[in-house]
From TrEMBL:
Residues 163-257 form the DUF1980 domain. Keywords: Membrane, Transmembrane, Transmembrane helix. PROSITE patterns: PROKAR_LIPOPROTEIN (PS51257). This is TIGR03943 family putative permease subunit. Residues 62-89 have a biased composition (Basic and acidic residues).
Length: 258
């Protein structure tokens, strides 16, 4: 891979980063919103460096195009060390073909733009969400109608609120559908990020009483919490439950993670 190609790939990579961060919200499929300024900065630097490299390569090429002073070119003496693919000074032309793999992220972003994590990732990971709120840290629920609530907050109130503020209250949760192994139930799910999609883990609430839409369908589901009491805590991860009353299909939100 020569200098021109290297700088062209660098420029294209920078353009791809700017495309998903400065000119769209696609970056939210991969990282948290706070990373946007860093992505824009990194993309800008890559484009600037790539363009400068292309200009320098063009200038160097122009300066080596034939002599105009009438002097003859120095003769070339081949020897036994010359090999195909090497120039007259013994340096190899181009570079390893594997370097072209650097173009794959560019094509992926421009052509297919991988979506946010969905039911496949959520169904393969049952890691319990971290509990970062102490007991009794939840404020009372205001109003009389359904309360819009992040799934993470619902899980926290279901397990850690000693005042049982969810009792009898209608809530509205937004997430995507993940099928469950047990009949008559499914999960409304949202992935939560610590940093980026690589460390995402699912926040799941079991929905009962409503027919499950297709997997990965984004919905708003309204219902009431089902209190659970256990004489002995079952093994594995236990998800809080919701008696569903209604649901509405929605478009995938710009910010798919909590």
């Amino acid at each position: 891979m020569n200098r021109v190609t290297q700088n062209l790939v660098l420029t294209l990579l920078g353009c791809a980063v700017l495309q998903i961060s400065a000119f769209s919200t696609t970056y939210l499929n991969y990282v948290k919103p706070g990373f946007r300024p860093f992505l824009i900065g990194a993309g800008t630097v890559l484009v600037v460096l790539g363009v400068i490299g292309l200009l320098q390569a063009a200038g160097a090429k122009k300066g080596t195009e034939g002599r105009t002073d009438g002097r003859p070119l120095a003769p070339h003496h081949s020897d036994e060390h010359d090999r195909p693919g090497e120039n007259t000074h013994g340096h190899p032309h181009g570079g390893p073909r594997v370097a072209w793999l650097l173009c794959l992220p560019v094509f992926a972003i421009f052509l297919i733009a991988p979506p946010a994590l969905g039911s496949f990732a959520a169904s393969r990971d049952d890691t319990p969400p971290p509990r970062d709120q102490p007991l009794s840290a939840f404020p009372p629920l205001a109003g009389d109608g359904p309360v819009d609530m992040p799934i993470g907050e619902f899980i926290g109130r279901a397990w850690d609120d000693d005042k049982k503020s969810l009792t009898g209250r209608e809530v509205r949760l937004t997430g995507f559908v993940v099928p469950a192994k047990k009949k008559g139930q499914w999960y409304v799910t949202r992935m939560q990020l610590a940093c980026c999609a690589a460390d995402a883990f699912p926040l799941k609430v079991t929905v009962r009483g409503l027919q499950a839409p297709p997997a990965d369908t984004w919905i708003e589901v309204t219902g009431t919490w089902i209190p659970q009491t256990f004489k002995k805590m079952p093994a594995g991860v236990v998800h809080p439950q919701l008696t569903g009353k209604s649901l509405t299909r929605i478009e995938t939100p710009d910010e798919p993670y909590e």
